[in-house]
Design brief:
Blueprint lengths: L7 H5 L4 H10 L1 E5 L3 H13 L3 E5 L17 H5 L4 H12 L4 E5 L5 H10 L2 E4 L4 H14 L3 E7 L2 E7 L9 H4 L6 H8 L3 H19 L9 E6 L4 E6 L29 E3 L4 E4 L9 H10 L4 E3 L3 E6 L2 E6 L4 E4 L4 H12 L1
Parallel strand pairs: 1-2, 1-4, 2-3, 4-5
Antiparallel strand pairs: 5-6, 6-7, 7-8, 9-10, 10-14, 11-12, 12-13, 13-14
Helix pairs in contact: 3-10, 6-7
The protein binds zinc ion (ZN).
């Protein structure tokens, strides 16, 4: 059986054909975030035959992910597998000849630019504006398209940003009018069908771009609600800002500036804060393990992280020094707790 017969039905679809399939098999896609949207997009693109997938996500699998994050199982949640590690195994089981590159780390400017330089397209599967601005700046600097996707509750939005379309706005141009997803995701929850549809629309745009069907791509932002049966397309061309710092006449790409911006943050909907080693001291896994043994704290070490319990909260320390404290929702409180434990 030759390799192409696997894709026979897809090649029968005339806009793709044999030539489109060949292009897909040579293409490289970066998926930023491997939660609900990232899992769904990765599976669709791997099954479609995309040659190389770069997956970036800093998180690990938890039981509360399983209702919507399709690549993961109870076994992944039990051992708190990093999402990209669990995803790698599942994607290789689906298709053994796919190249999957994984990045179990916080996506910063350097990683984002590196991925934009190596890929033909970027899929947004993040849950926050800051990372989308970073994707936007890296994509426009490198001239690589990215497909915006956002979902909350039963609603979703999708739009393909194409840097060489000089009439169309970029994500930064739209910021003044976008609803704050960060403000709503803690309260609104999310249902899996909204995720699946968002990812499906994103991957449809991805397949069009990668197979050279650019004329079929959306020029209006799609907004839908699967619960209340509403759908609309929003014309956004008039929102192009000629002075935009990303897509204007004199771009400065502010999100890519190398000054170690502190990426510490309250994690949306997680009852947790994330502390980055950037400004402060970097704690190694060895150091944390020794301290936990000395203080007789309940703890567990895996190849990827160290989990410990301190003052009634669950701490997760990762190899790069990134720390998540579950049970604390205030940055200052998080920093004080850090200094109480590590000095
Ligand atoms: Zn812009």
């Amino acid at each position: 059986m030759n390799k192409e017969s696997r894709y026979a039905k897809q090649m029968q679809f005339e806009p793709i054909g044999r030539e489109g399939q060949q292009r897909l098999m040579q293409s490289r896609v970066a998926i930023i975030g491997c939660g609900a949207l990232g899992s769904a997009a990765a599976e669709l693109l791997v099954r479609a035959g995309v040659g190389t997938i770069h997956l970036a996500d800093r998180d690990y699998v938890e039981m509360s992910n399983l209702h919507r994050q399709q690549l993961f199982t109870e076994a992944d949640a039990e051992v708190m597998n990093p999402k990209v590690v669990a995803a790698y195994d599942r994607l290789k089981a689906i298709r053994s000849d796919v190249e999957v590159m994984t990045y179990a780390e916080h996506v910063d400017a350097m990683l984002m630019e590196q991925l934009a330089a190596q890929c033909d397209l970027i899929i947004d599967a993040t849950d926050n504006f800051e990372t989308r601005l970073l994707i936007n700046d890296a994509a426009y600097r490198k001239g690589v398209p990215w497909i915006y996707g956002a979902c909350v509750g039963s609603t979703g939005r999708v739009y393909p940003f194409l840097p060489d379309d000089k009439e169309a706005p970029c994500f930064r141009c739209l910021l003044p009018t976008l609803p704050s997803v960060n403000a709503t995701c803690e309260n609104a929850g999310i249902i899996a069908p909204a995720v699946q549809i968002t990812a499906s629309y994103q991957c449809s745009e991805a397949l069009k771009w990668l197979t050279g069907e650019r004329k079929a791509m959306r020029r209006k932002m799609l907004h839908f609600d699967v619960w209340n049966s509403g759908q609309m397309e929003i014309g956004i061309l008039r929102m192009k800002n000629g002075q935009c710092m990303t897509c204007g006449e004199v771009p400065s790409f502010p999100s890519l500036s190398r000054d170690q911006a502190d990426k510490s943050a309250v994690l949306c909907g997680r009852n947790a804060v994330q502390l980055m080693p950037g400004a402060g001291r970097k704690i190694t896994l060895e150091e944390a393990e020794k301290l936990a043994q000395k203080l007789k704290l309940k703890h567990k070490r895996t190849p990827y992280f160290m989990e410990l319990h301190y003052e009634g909260n669950r701490w997760m320390l990762f190899e790069q020094g990134r720390l998540i404290i579950h049970g604390i929702q205030d940055m200052e409180e998080g920093r004080r707790a850090f200094h109480r434990l590590f000095g």
